[in-house]
Amino acid sequence: DWTSGNVIEEQIAKIREQVGSARVISALSGGVDSAVSTALVHRAIGDQLTAVFVDHGLLRKGEREQVENDYVASTGVRLITVDAEETFLGHLAGVTDPETKRKIIGREFIRAFEKVQRELVDEAKAEGEPIKFLVQGTLYPDVVESGGGSGTANIKSHHNVGGLPDDLDFGLIEPLRTLFKDEVRQIGRELGIPEAIVGRQPFPGPGLGIRIIGEVTKDRLEILREADAIVREELTAAGLDQEIWQCPVVLLADVRSVGVQGDGRTYGHPVVLRPVSSEDAMTADWTRVPYETLAKISNRITNEVAEINRVTLDVTSKPPATIEWE
Ligand code: XMP
């Protein structure tokens, strides 16, 4: 019968047998699946595993620290962080088309990862143990979906950062292949991964890059990051984490509107709150967040983030709108 303990024991034995004394690499995205699959492999083979975290500069507030400090402290995983913000923002300069953004972010992610990987491959070779495997956080629904051929139109390319080069000469370790998301969370808890990571709501691979409508710049990211952090804080404080599937905060960076603050006229940007309820992100309804909570969020954002002078609410279901604005 199914217990997270049994699954862990089984997977550990399986991973050890598959890997032997070889080295393994893994890409952490900050999300649940890569966090749990990486921790599981680490539990099996310890420092034969190296995890790589690419900071593309499109992360949410505190996300990098969460991985570098909390995740590492709780799992003991050997981690390399790549500072790639400048590279990513350089390539995103002037780009406003959503799919082009996704393509660039996906491509640069692979490049950044491959660079570290080459270094690790050389290092491992010098030490006499080649890198032979790559960890992937594939879940059961991913397996079904990719084999499905459902014929649905490709609405968004859904670049999953963590989607790795497929021309690699590595074997795959996919310890979550038979599991559903809630089972993965359970295993993560059993492995001691902090709740903030294990219970995290979905967040797109291209990160805040597809929540700035218009060009992605460092300043705009800073503004959005602050607003997003306030929204997450207040929704958590209101106990709405379970009811809400996710709540994108979208910066309409090319729109300005007039406001008044103190004695002064402002000419700032609006943000859109997009709280949605959903089972699987295929369809969604907008969440009826209590007015009190919305009021608090609105007050805090306009008080604490100088460039934002208007907070709006998206009350569209999916379909016809998608969850993300891009
Ligand atoms: P949409 O906007 O298509 O989103 O209704 C459905 C779910 O997918 C997430 N999403 C993405 N996830 N890379 C990802 O890894 C992407 O490019 C991407 N685009 C959307 C979105 O956050 C929602 O959970």
TrEMBL record:
Cellular component, GO annotation: cytosol
Catalytic activity: XMP + L-glutamine + ATP + H2O = GMP + L-glutamate + AMP + diphosphate + 2 H(+)
Residues that, per the record, bind ATP: S29, G30, G31, V32, D33, S34, A35
GO molecular function, one term: GMP synthase activity
Pathways involved: Purine metabolism; GMP biosynthesis; GMP from XMP (L-Gln route): step 1/1
GMPS ATP-PPase domain location: 2-200
UniProt entry keywords in alphabetical sequence: ATP-binding, Glutamine amidotransferase, GMP biosynthesis, Ligase, Nucleotide-binding, Purine biosynthesis
Enzyme Commission number: 6.3.5.2
Its job: Catalyzes the synthesis of GMP from XMP.
Subunit structure: Homodimer.
Protein name: GMP synthase [glutamine-hydrolyzing]
Section covered of the full-length record: 200 to 525 of 525
